[in-house]
Amino acid sequence: MNVLVVNCGSSSLKYQLIDMKGEVVLAKGLVERIGIEGSILTQKVEGREKYIIKQPMANHKEAIKLVLGALVDSTNGVIKDMSEISAVGHRVVHGGEKYSNSVLIDDEVMKALDECSKLAPLHNPPNITGINACKELMPTTPMVAVFDTAFHQTIPEYAYIYPLPYELYTEHGIRKYGFHGTSHRYVASKVAELMNDDLKNLKVITCHLGNGASIAAIKDGKSIETSMGFTPLEGIAMGTRSGSIDPAIVTFLMKELNYSIDEVNDVINKKSGVYGISGVSSDFRDIEDAAWKEDNKRAELALDVFHYKVKKFIGSYAAVMNGVDCVVFTAGLGENSPETREAICEGLDYLGIKLDKEKNKVRGKAVEISVEGSKVKVFVIPTDEELMIARDVKELVK
Ligand code: ADP
Predict the structure, then answer these.
(1) How far, in Å, is the centroid of ligand 1 from the Cα of 254?
(2) In whole angstroms, what is the distance from residue 32 CA to residue 15 CA?
(3) Residue 314: domain span
(4) What per-residue confidence (pLDDT) applies to 66?
């Protein structure tokens, strides 16, 4: 069974074709600049040169048509024809309160996704566009929606309700939803496998540290708390996002400094985080270079702030779960920066977290990095949201 996994952004589209027998990635690719000048598709197949198509793509339907063409291409493709794609899995950012699991897409689901768009105006509309485009081109192929929010639907009410007038929740859906759920779910299931235990027996803290970053507390196999909230802005400081700040800063900026709504949005989403503090970059590699090679004090401060925020969440999630058995680092930074992991884990020995500095010198591999006998085990686990999506599709379609 081959599953096509599609992740549509506003002007980009990532895809993977996965053969579920052995969970092998047959091809993966990226389409960029959809609807703008310079549209380009890049497809990678293990052991082959990259296949690049540069041609105008006015919209997502044209982009997906090209993706399908690239997959069945007689020299650069990996399948003979489209009938070899058994099903399609779509990453959808927001499923609101309606979806706590992945779901086969029908008209009712499409309506619900549309309703969720007001909660994720930047993300859900391109996801919906992608689904519609695939439905037009593959009308008989089953499609599944896999939501970033779904895994966190098990968070208890006292943890997801904001201390605001209750009607804002009942009438406008203002509550914590949480994001990166597919990634947290994937690494949690993987850590249980590595610990040779059932996830239901473990208290796990998963740290998804990439450009966007979030942390989750997983107990009895369920997410019971996560750092992102109503939107993916809450929580720890990120590449360019502020994370949690005193909400009065927003009104101060508007009242005292005359910021418009758009300007405030721009500042807290695109000009803050480690980029805002360092003034260097949103990319942690650049900030680490500036801090350690150029002795840039603001870059150092940005890293200190980031590590401190993550550490605080780990401590509070240990409290929330009444203990912790393992901590997992994943995503771009979590998988690739030993220095970040060391800085975060430093001083957490009272919790029983003891990192092995030698084992920690690892990038992008699923391994334990805590010392032999550490009460809390620490792991690096590369995330694989596409595989998780494909597994859900297989489960639902069979
Ligand atoms: P997203 O999917 O949210 O865009 P990723 O999970 O791809 O983010 O992570 C991107 C981040 O990971 C970037 O800030 C990048 O600097 C960081 N990163 C990737 N590789 C390394 C590395 N070797 N050392 C430090 N940071 C890294």
Answers:
(1) 32
(2) 12
(3) 198-380
(4) 96
Query: Each residue of 62-78: pLDDT tens digit?
Result: 999 999 999 999 999 99
Q: How many domains does the chain have?
A: 2
pTM summary value: 0.95
Please write the tens of the pLDDT for every residue from 173-229. 999 999 999 999 999 999 999 999 999 999 999 999 999 999 999 999 999 999 999
The finding on whether 337 has its CB within 6 A of some atom of ligand 1 is yes
On the question of pLDDT at 119 being above 90, the answer is no
Q: Is residue 391 part of a domain?
A: no
Instruction: Quote the ligand 1 centre to 320 CA distance (angstroms).
Output: 28
Q: pLDDT tens, 42-64? A: 999 999 999 999 999 999 999 99
**Do 143 and 72 fall into the same domain?**
yes
Q: Residue 262, exposed/middle/buried by CB under 10 A (0-12, 13-18, 19+)?
A: exposed
The CATH number of residue 32's host domain is: 3.30.420.40
DSSP per residue over 116-173, as a string? HTTTSTTTHHHHHHHHHHHHHHSTTS-EEEEESSGGGGGS-HHHH--SS-THHHHHH-
The answer, yes or no, to whether any atom of ligand 1 lies below 6 A from the CB of 39, is: no
Q: Is residue 209 within 6 Å of ligand 1 at its C-beta?
A: no
Under a CB-based contact definition with an 8 Å cutoff, are residues 323 and 304 in contact?
no
Model confidence at 81: pLDDT above 90? yes
Q: How far, in Å, is the centroid of ligand 1 from the Cα of 239?
A: 9
Within this chain, do residues 217 and 74 fall inside the same structural domain, yes or no? no
Same-domain pairing of 225 and 141? no
Same domain assignment for residues 234 and 121: no
| Inside any domain, residue 392 | no
In a domain, 179, yes or no: no
pLDDT band at 121 (very low <50, low <70, confident <90, very high): confident
Options 73, 81, 114, 148, the catalytic residue: 148
